Amino acid sequence: MESVPANTSEMEIRHGYAQANGIRLHYAESGSGDDLVILLHGFPEFWYSWRHQLSALGKQFHVVAPDMRGYNLSEKPPRVEDYSTDLLAGDVIGLIDHFGAKKAAIVGHDWGAGVAWAVAQKYPERVSKLAVLQVPPAAAWRANLSFGQLLRCWYMFFFQLPRVPEWAIRRNSFRGLDRVFKEKVGRLGSFTDDDVEIYREALGQPGALTSAINYYRANVFRIMRGSKTAATTEPSGEKGKGKDRRIRVPTLFIFGEQDIAILPQTVRGVENYIDAPYREVRIPDSGHWVQNEAVEEVNSALMEFLDSA
């Protein structure tokens, strides 16, 4: 899906393809110049999740929003292990290389947030700045994990089943997407019927749904048990940890506090996992889809952060 409305902007949104990390990725882009910004979406979205940010940030930066591997028009590797955060982080580095840049600012939401954390930890020399929406570092998630949080993320365990999640999501022509985007939001009316139809069409691309769920199958248990991958950070001096693995690039964390999947207490102490300038923005009445629900607040925070020295 390339020709979808981007009616929030006067900026032209262009489309292209990149060969990155051995796979073909579709991307949307806006703006130009030497300051590259890469926007990474989550589940169950695609580049369109960032339409408001493409238009706003593109006035000052070269902004690229890929369809992450497995989504929409990007290539869809068949195996579960093809969706590990290590490989997804490699895709981002491949995109930076494709555009001839030494560094990029990385912005991520949902699974894109997990990948953004991984890129910043594994390849700090390739990241100029890091902005993460809704999802804390894996170590912060584990440190703050509660029974209430486990109840909120029940679907992550449901997605481990073979075939059943695909059936449940696909039934009644992806009817569940209406509930996800129209009802489970902090600010009602953030998504139009046309928006939901666009998401429905993208998720209906051959192989896209299984690929999207494979993000959970490949990574959830590794994150829960604290595997030493690029998606894990630990603060300096944490008991039982001999290695300081904090993020060492300037970081912005944005959190909509009405998130149906992530409790506010689950994102406590994110600053403890950062060894660099850190900013945090809380939006009390926004839900999980914060860049679509709180467009002005998110765009303003991102612009101020990306434009700062």
Verbal overview:
By secondary structure, the chain is an alpha/beta fold. Helices cover 37% and strands 16% of the residues. The protein has an eight-stranded mixed β-sheet, sandwiched between helices. Helix 1 links the parallel strand 3 and strand 4. It is globular. About 4% of the residues have low confidence.
Blueprint (SSEs and pairs):
Elements: E1 14-20, E2 23-30, E3 36-40, H1 51-57, E4 62-66, H2 85-98, E5 104-109, H3 111-122, E6 127-133, H4 138-143, H5 147-152, H6 154-158, H7 164-174, H8 176-182, H9 193-203, H10 208-224, E7 251-256, E8 278-283, H11 290-293, H12 295-307
Parallel strand pairs: 3-4, 3-5, 5-6, 6-7, 7-8
Antiparallel strand pairs: 1-2, 2-4
Class from secondary-structure proportions: alpha/beta
Give the spatial strand order of the biggest sheet. Answer: 1-2-4-3-5-6-7-8
**What is the H/E order?**
EEEHEHEHEHHHHHHHEEHH
- As an assembly, this protein is single chain
Shape: globular
Task: Give a brief description.
The protein is globular, with a radius of gyration of 18 Å.
Question: What labels describe this entry?
Answer:
globular; alpha/beta; single chain; 309 residues; 8 strands
